[in-house]
Structure formats: C-alpha cells, structure tokens
Amino acid sequence: MPTILTTVVPVQLKIRVANKERARRFYEDAFGLAQQVIRHTEDADYDGYLFGDYGQPGFFLLLLVDDTDFDCPGRSTLGLLVPDLDTIHHQALLAGATETVPITDADGMPRASAVTDPDGNWIWLYQG
Length: 128
Known about the structure:
The protein is α/β, with parallel strands linked by helices and 128 residues long. Helix content is 17%, strand content 37%.
C-alpha cells in the first residue's frame, strides 16, 4: 500500500447500534475490545473504545451510538487490522457476526475478510 503524507489524521469513528449493551458485548467477545470512560462531565460519563493517547500518533476513538445520540449516523463500515485473521474472523462469527466476505487474498490488498455485526455494520478484517 502506498504511504500518503498528510497533517490531517482520522481520530474518531461512530457506529450506529440498536442496543448499546448488546453491541458492547459483541465487540468485546468478537475483538477483545474493552469500553472505558473517555469523557467525564458533571452530567454524565461517556463510554467508548480508546486507542493510544490523545495528541499522539495512533490515537483513535471508536464510539457506539444509538438514536438517543444527536449525531447518530446510518450504518457504518470500519476496518480492523488483526494479528491472526483466521482466528479473529471465526471469533467474530461465534460472537454473532454474519460472514459477508469470506477470507480471501485479493491482488494488491492484504489477506482480508468482512463480517457484519448484529446491527448490520460492516467490519473488514485485515491480516496484520
């Protein structure tokens, strides 16, 4: 893959879900992610998945949102770099995902597959 140099870096993705608790369990069981408080205010704590440290390379937020959130998107697509594609793909299926693209080797791309979560969001899995 070519390297593209830019000062603009993506730092957040919001995924629409019908039931945040069910989605939290799915992402934990399928990919080993653990939610944590990413923002604390006097009124509420906001949970999400935090990768890295704010302001540092690799920082990223992944948020599960539903109709109660003012900026809830439609269905989403995301890609995850995984250490063992076969294991994680199978683990996602056991956690409730549906296979949408079987594990494949495509020209010019890393070995990959795609599943959909219980809310219909696409999750591409790429061999790391």
